[in-house]
What does this fold into?
Amino acid sequence: MEIAQRLGVSKMTVGKWRHRLHHQGRAAGGRTPWPPPHP
It folds into this structure.
């Protein structure tokens, strides 16, 4: 259930994560393990 919940949350917070990754990616060098690549 934890995985299913995480997937649902990631779908709702995908926009939030993208915004965060945009800034985190620059600091991390452009490589981020989360969120997973979308089709």
In short: The chain has two helices and no strands. The radius of gyration is 11 Å. The mean pLDDT is 65.
